[in-house]
Each structure stands twice: as C-alpha cells, then as structure tokens.
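Section handout 9: paired folding examples.
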Amino acid sequence: MTDTTSALTRRYQDELAARQQQGLWRQSGDNAVAESWRNFAGNDYLGLAQDPRLVKKAQQHLERWGVGATASPVVSGFTAAHQSLCEQLCDWLGYPQAILFNSGFAANQALLFTLLGKDDALFQDKLNHASLIEAGVLSPATQRRFRHNDMAHLRQLLAKQIQPSASLIVSEGVFSMDGDVSPTESLAAIANQSGALWALDDAHGLGVLGQEGEGSISRGARPDILIVTFGKALGVAGAAVLASPTIIDYLRQFARHYVYSTAMPPAQAALIEDAIRLARTEHWRRETLSAHAEQLTQGLHEWLETSTAFEPHADNRQHLPRLLATPSPIKPLIIGDLAALQQVNHALMKAHIRGGAIRPPTVPANTARLRISLSAQHHKTDITALIEALKPVLASDKACGVTA
C-alpha cells in the first residue's frame, strides 16, 4: 500500500483539511520577513539575540570549542564551558546546583517524567505551557489542573487527595499567552502547608523581572525547583533546572532527556554565560521595556479598554478588543473572534509589522488575540508605527465581538 492510499495518510489529510477550514492553520514564520519588518512576535525581550558583542563572542567560542558536544553529558559531552554556565546560573539565581537541557520543552518533560511515580499527584495551573501539560498527561502520576492562579481551587484539589505518596505543584512565573504572573508567595505557602514540592517554569520571567533580571524569584518566594530557558530574554537557546543537590543528582541519574541526548554545544553554553552577564548588568534594557509598555498603553487608550485579566466564559459581553495590562513585555490584545483577528493581523502586515496572531487551541476558545511582544531592541518609532497601524482597524466594526 502506498503512502497516498493508506488509512493513516487519509486521516491526516482529513484532519489537515478540517484545520484549514476552521481558520486554525499554522505555518512557519518567514525569517526573511522578520529581518525586514518590525517584529513584535518574538521573545527577544532584552534585544540580545542580535547584539553585535554576542555575535562576536559566538564566533570566538566556536573557534575555541567547535560546533558540537559530540556526546551525552554523562559520556564525554560535558565540558568546562557547561560547568562554568552552571556555576554562573547558581550564583545569579541562588540555587546550589543546576542541570542543563537542550530546550525548555525537554527540561519540563524530563522533570515530570523523572520525578513522578504512579502513586504521586501532580497539580498544574490550567494555563501552563503545553510541554508541562503533555508531560503531566503522559506521566504515571495523577494530574489535576487548577483554575488559572486560583489558589482556593488548588487548596480544594489538594484536600481531596486520598493519601498520595507525594505531590508536586507546577506553575509558571510569567504566563506566555496572557503575560500575567503567578501568586508565588501563595504557591510557596500552600506547598509548605501541604508538604508538596513546588516547581516554577520562569521561561518568560528570567531576564525581565528583578533588579538583575533574576526573574520571578525577585518577587520574594523561591520554588523548590526552578526551570529557566535561554531562548527568550537571553537570546540564545537551551534551558536549565535549578534545585537542591538531591533533585539535580536524581535528574542526572534518571532523566532520559539528559542521559540519552547529546549535550548542548559547549560554544552555546559559553555564549549563554556571556548573555547572562549582559542581562545582569545592563539595567537600561528593562527600563526600556517599561517605557515601551507605557507608550503602547497610552497610545491605544482611546481605542481600547485595558484590564488585568480576561475571563472568556464569565462575561462574553465585555468590551472587545481589550489590552491586558501586564507586568511583563507580553501585551495581549484580546480580539475574541477569529475573523476579526485576521483583519487586525492583515492591517499589521500591510504596515510591514509582524505580530503574534494566536488562536485556539493555543489559547482558550473566544480569546483569539494579537500577542504583542516588546523588546529593548525596539525604538519609540517602532511602538508608534504599531499604534498607528492598529488604530484604524480597531476603530472599525471588524475588530470587535466574541463568537459563541
């Protein structure tokens, strides 16, 4: 039987056609467009991805270390460059040990697959990243999802557990689609009271929150396990988990994503360390982000309502579009309707501006949005161009309403 006639291929074709008809078709971003257009779709919050000093450092590290690690970290792939990065991370974030992974997705999956057994309980915020939710579904533990940032609901779920052998609570520092932050002090208190471990994925908080960009831990509470990534504010790639020696040693021994994967290139590890130094010392980058956020909010205040949260099922009559006021560089513009989102995105494309048109199932139904990501690399003129491109379409009837 050929590929075109197999039952599996026919099923794939049907599902692909359905996704196109629903207006949910995904396609890879055009990097050439990203270079020539104003880009508000990425996660380069500190503007480090194209920093000339890091580009030069990358060339130097490649000459020193070559292009690859050639083996797993437990074979011969772990070098002095990796060790130095781990030490820098521990110094910056205040943890005794760190372990490196090739991506945040791999780090999150390794964490939940490795630390949880069949008699354990896992509690996750409903808006956690797909890597965490999928890992929870596939792990042997029993997963329970609490309403977004709803600590009362989390307490209820914990109270209903029938003597699990152990519990793990997982949330995010900054949520990638809403740009809001988790109640870290409440999470710490609940974990302490229940005897659960608490893990925090701070992929979108690292670099942008705190005096030195230390992320969500700057808000006071320190999770037992901290997951950070290097492909967003730090502008490179990869991830790390920081925790006690016991937890890190356990991951080194049993995490398959670590043991059976080639280590990140040592040149990359050295470059991440350089990026951390810039993130810690160049405070103007975070100050610039704050100025951009204020300019954006003020520039659109006549055309939009601003709020700190959006509940799609609580009151579908609330005014749209709505710009969420967030403490992060992620500024979601909630449109609601898919067709209206396409109109907004089309207006930006005409102005050679790239935004993040985010649709279900990435976000809940009726919350299709333009995910505006600010960067320290943006100039005031870039923010002005974005505002001017949005004004006409937001003033029209095409960018309003939530479909049932």
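Moving on to protein 2 of 2.
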Amino acid sequence: MNAVVVRLSAVFGRSVAASIGMAAGIAMAGATIGAGFTTVPVQAATLDTIAKQAILVDLTSDTVLFEKNADERMAPSSMSKIMTAYMVFEAIKGGRLTLESTLPVSERAWRMQGSKMFVELHNNIKVDDLLKGMIVQSGNDACIVLAEGLAGSEQSFAEQATKRARELGLKNSNFTNATGWPDPNHYMTARDLAILAERLIKDFPEFYKYDSIREFKYHGITQGNRNPLLYRNMNVDGLKTGHTDAGGYGLTASGEREGRRLLLVVNGLPSMQARADESARLIEWGFREFASYTLYKGGETIEQVPVWLGEQDMVPVTVPQNLSVTMARADRPGMKVSLVSNAPVAAPIKKGDTVGKLVISAPGFPGKEVPVVAAQDVPKAGIFGRAFAAAKYLVFGNSL
C-alpha cells in the first residue's frame, strides 16, 4: 500500500496536500489539558506580565496563547463567585430554582463583611436580585443567601462545589466557602478558573448576560460592576474581579470580536489600576497578534479515502465538529494541512469510525493532529465482490 498524494480543496484560497498512506496509528498529538485547552504558546516568549499568575485562552479553538504559573495554587478571592454562579445556574436549569424564587436572609448572611449587596435581615429576596447582587456588586452576603438556599449551609455548599469542580475538570481547586473569603484551604489555579469560566459561558449563555450588567440598585444603593474592562470599549462582557491581601488583585475576563472569543485570568497584581491596565494589554495582544482560522465545518467532506473489500471503493471523510486553529498571524502563510490514513481502510466501516487524522503544521506552530471519521457506512462487499477485488489485486497490484 504505497502512499498516494492528492490535492484537497482550497483552504483560505490555497491548496493543501493530503497524504493517504500507511500511518503508524491514529493517536492524538499535542498536549491537551484541563477540559480541552490545547497549549500553543506561539510567540509567548515575546510577552511578559507583572501578574503572578496568568492564562490567556482563545475559546474559538480552545487554545492557550499565553500562560504564567497557570497551575500554581492561588487565592482566587471573589473570582470564586464564578463557581457559586455556576452552581446556581445549574440549579435553575435543573428546575430546583427559578429566577423568581425567593430565599431567606439568615443572620450569618446579614452580618457578612467585605463587599455587600446590603441584604435585609430575615427578608426573602428573589434569586434574580441575588444573582445581580453577587455578580455585579460582588456581594458576599448574596453569595451566602444563595449557598444556604441551595445546600442548607455555606459549608455544605462548599463541599458540593468542590465535588462539582472535580467533575468539571478543575483538578487544583478546593472551596471552603461561597465567597472567596480568605482561607488557606480555599484555592484555585488560573487554569482551573479559565476552565470554569469557559464552562459557564458555554453551558449557560442565557445567564451569562448577568456578567455584562454595569450597575445594579438594591435597597436604595446603586453599585457599579467592578470589572474595569466593561467600561473600556473593548467588547469585554464578563466575568469577575477579585482581591484579597493573600491573592492580590485579580480578574477573570472574556470578550468577543468578529466571532472570536478570548478568555483571560490574571491574579497577584499590585493595584486596581494595574489590574485594569495589564488585563487590557494582554487581551489586546491576544486579539492583535493571533487569529483563528476555520479549516473545515463539522460534517463537511474533506476527501475520499480508499476502501478494501467494501461495497464501494471510497469513503468520504470528515471531522465531527467545526475545526478551527489559532496561530500567530505571521505564521499563517506557511500553514500546511495533511490527511494521513491507513489506506485502504478495510470494510465494514461505520459512520463515525476514525479512519485517519489531519496533521496541521506551520512555522513557529507546534502542530496539531485531529482525527477524521467516516462520513457514511460502507458495508462489506458480498462474496463475489470480494473475489473480484482479490483478483484485481492479483492482476494489477495495489492501484490505489
């Protein structure tokens, strides 16, 4: 089975070669981490940050553009409230709560210090208002009302949040409260925060709108959203700030331009101004220096791969989901895409069976491999068809 070189259809106005031949296997290459982020820190050496921990991800292709101490445990401060919000959104989606449900204010919630929504003791407050108080005003009191409403106590809620975090792929997170209140056993990593924020954005798009609300008035007190990038005309629409003496100033932020969404987590910055300026600089760098390129749409036929002893000689191959890659704009002209398969693929073949892989490369780009699958079934040929194929092979050899 000699390798056969064909030409794929034009991608971005240029052709790319496809190599269909013997492959040593269909194993995925490239480091996949967390909930699916791929580390492609192209040109990362050209960038530094004064943040102690940072990670910048292109969510269009789940690609890490830059990271610094991203797996170092840190005090997430009020960025922990992203987890509390996720748990509340999940409860609403699961039918346990509605936005119109009301929850009682305990004395513990009422007495909670730090940033506050200013809930009233023994009052019953709508979940909708509590969410705004937590997300917009960063109200610790609102967090405790929500936590007690869902789990009976903040401690029980924290235990449930830690368990759910493990299920979401947050490997280095532990919660002892719902607010991010300082506790040596309450920690996250920048990577875990990025994974969590991505899940919140993608799992609950109907609720993500809370993060872009600029101000909220409750109990006669109007407070503005603490996310400084919401006010900078940068297309940023979330998520949450944080600050404690142990963690410094932090921000988890996301924004979208021209269909491309970036997600940033920074922590350990020295001041509110540094948090605003450094976050803006990193996000602008990500949008300016990189671009996401859609190679194929899910279900789109990429090429035909030869079949051995099937009812048809070729099977169309595709990718199950839209395939995008993110790379430095300067590296784009040298991008190459190759299709590699164990050809011919023996029948029977089921739709969705992995039959090869796409190998994507470019100068300065560490490479990416993505499985390709059969786009349709190919039954095994009948006895006469198999006999004919065998005879053809004896006479003509491998003419694929």
